[in-house]
Give the backbone structure.
Amino acid sequence: MHKQIHEQLDAYYEEMVSIRRYLHQHPELSFHETETAAYIANYYEKLGIPYEKNVGGNGVVATLKGGKPGKTVALRADFDALPIQDEKDVPYKSKVDGVMHACGHDGHTATMLVLAKVLLSHQEDIPGTVVFLHQHAEELAPGGAKPMVEAGVLDGVDAVFGTHLWAPEKLGVVQTSQDALMAGADRFEIVIQGQGGHGAAPHETKDAIVIASDVVSQLQQIVSRRLNPTQTAVVTVGTFHAGSAFNIIADKAVIGGTVRYLDTHVQNIVMEEMERILKGVSLSHDASYTIDYVKGYPPVINHAKEALQILEASKSVPSVDTAEEIIPVMGGEDFSYYLHEKPGAYFFTGAQLEGHAYPHHHPKFDIDERALPIAAKMLYEIYMNYQEKSNS
C-alpha cells in the first residue's frame, strides 16, 4: 500500500500544484479566510469525507475513519495569507492587492487536500482515524490554533503532526527536533513621552527621539549582557516613529518590536530587564513611558518520541535525501498549542526554489512545488509509523 500511495501522490502532483496556485492567486488575511475555508469544505464535500466548518472561527476539520483498528492521529495545515504585496512575475501571482501567500500556507493546504483524496481511495486498508485540521489565522496572534483546540478538535486524538514547507532548505531535506523547534513570539509597543519644542532650543525640551534612541540601544544589551550566554533570546526593535518636521523636537516616540525565547524563565528575565531599562532611561531624562507587552505564541516544543518517528518515517520516502535534527529556529508558530495538549511533533520540509531563495514573508517569496508530494508522503509515512509503533 505504501508504494501505491506514493505513486498516487506523484500522479496527483498537477492537482496539488493547481490547488496551490489557485489559493496563491486568491489569498485571504488571518481571520478573514471565508472563501478559502469554503473552498476546503467544498473539496471534502465532493470527496464525501465528513467535515465540520467554522471550527473555532474559520477552521475546517475533516475526519477519515480507516477500515482497520488503530489510533486517532491529527494532521494540521494552515491556510491564511499575509498583508504583503506580491512582487513575483509569475502567472499565479496574487490577484488581491496587498495580500499574498508569502509563507507557504497555500502549499500546506494543497498537500493536505490531495493526501486526504488519496487516503480515501485506500480507506478500508487504513488503520485508525485521520483527522485533517485545516487551521485559519496562524499568522496573527492570538491565532487560530488555540480556539480550535478550545473547540475540541483534539478530543479523542492520540497524537498530532504537522509540517511547514521551508524555503531556507533545499528540496529533499527534512528537519525536526526532539525538543524545542521554534521560539515563543511576543510583541511590544513602547511610548516615550518627552516634551517637544523648537529645534533651536533643545535645552528647553525633553527630546523623545534622543530618549527613545537610548532605550533602543540599551534593549540590545539585554541579550548580549544580561542573559547567560547559554540562554537563547532575541530582542528586535522593528519600528520607530517620532517627529513631524526637521526643526521641531519631538515630544513623543513610539517603538515597536518582538521578543523571541525558548523557555519562560528567559521570557521573564527579558520582560523584567525591559522594564528596568525603561524606568532608568526615563528617570535620567525626566520623561515618562508606557509599555504594552503582549505574550504571543509559546515555543514549539516537540515530543521526543514523536520527533524520532518523523526521522524514522523519512527513510520510507525515497525523495528525502537528508533527515536531520536541528537547533531551534527563532520564528514562531501556534502549532505549539496542539503540542501542549497532545503528544506530537512538527517538522520542516525543504522547499527552496533554485535561484529564487527569498525568505518567508518576502514580497517575492515562492517555493519549489516539487516539495508538495514530499510533504504529503512524509505525513502519510509518519501516520503509518505511529500506527505501527502503537500496535507493536
